[in-house]
Known about the structure:
The chain is of the alpha+beta class. The chain has helices at residues 13-27, 29-38, 43-46, 55-69, 74-80, 85-88, 90-98, 101-110, 144-155, 194-212, 218-322, and strands at 11-12, 52-53, 120-127, 130-136, 167-172, 180-186. The chain is built from eleven helices and six strands.
Amino acid sequence: RAKVADTAMELHCCLVQIVLRYLRSRYGDDLMRRIVRDTDMSLEYLEGSSHWISYEYYCRFLAKAVEFTGNPRLAFDAGISSFAVESFGVIGKFIRHLGSPPTAYRLAVQFNSLWSRVNKWQLVKMSRNGCVISVTFPHVKQDRNNCLAIQGSLAAGMLLFSLPCARVEELKCACNEGNSCIYQVHWVSRPTRLWGYAGLVAGLGVGTGSWLAGWDFGAIGCAVLMGVGGYLAGRRADYSIRLKDVDAKTEEQASSLLESIRATEKLNEDLQKKVEQRTAELSDANQQLEGPIREVRESEGWVMLAGRRAAVGGLAAGWGRVV
């Protein structure tokens, strides 16, 4: 049975249901149920469509899931599944076919209050291939696992449109300071159909002009073929432009990753040097202490010997008096 404090109306259970589905699919139903039991919560309550949980319980649940699975980025991985089409049902299919990536992120910001009452989302900036979103926590402290879950959901927004996950960069984190997290999201949009339509119009125009100029009836079919050919050529140009953009973004990400690797290697080298230096200092200190320790041990030996001699002398004196 759920505790009253854990059922405060702060977060809708749909958020924890995302993690439950991920745990069940990735680690199995048994482990998922063990995690729920260990948090003193009822699985039936968490799976309810109209139930709410406290922010404290949600953070505790994520921490317990990380502990049981040994995956420190479990919240992020689970967040990736939050924007799957099946998570939204009919609405997800509607957004996928009639919406666009900017529309998906605008809706996420606009309707966030329907499932969260502990934070406020704000769309700071929107562009064709990215946006900046601010998440403010007025009354609670941001948790690292919750931050990873938000990043995962933002990265997965592109899955609605069968596109690669977006790249999320955390510009500011409330886990460190302040009460706001600021995320910059970059994505690769679908190739536009501009050149495809241009090729279609050009092909149809050439074919129609030829027919009006007195060509035979077959010119109509020729016009259609030219239109189709122009459209295909235009679409090829569209995809070529998009591939260049993808290559540029991939190169940028690879460069950023390489810089991170180099920075990590530099930190490891500095740490190794400090460890070696500290080890040498401790070794010198041990050598310097060996002499005093040896003297102390020798002194202890002389003290013990003197004590034994005194005891023997006292015993002998006592026997002498007796005699």
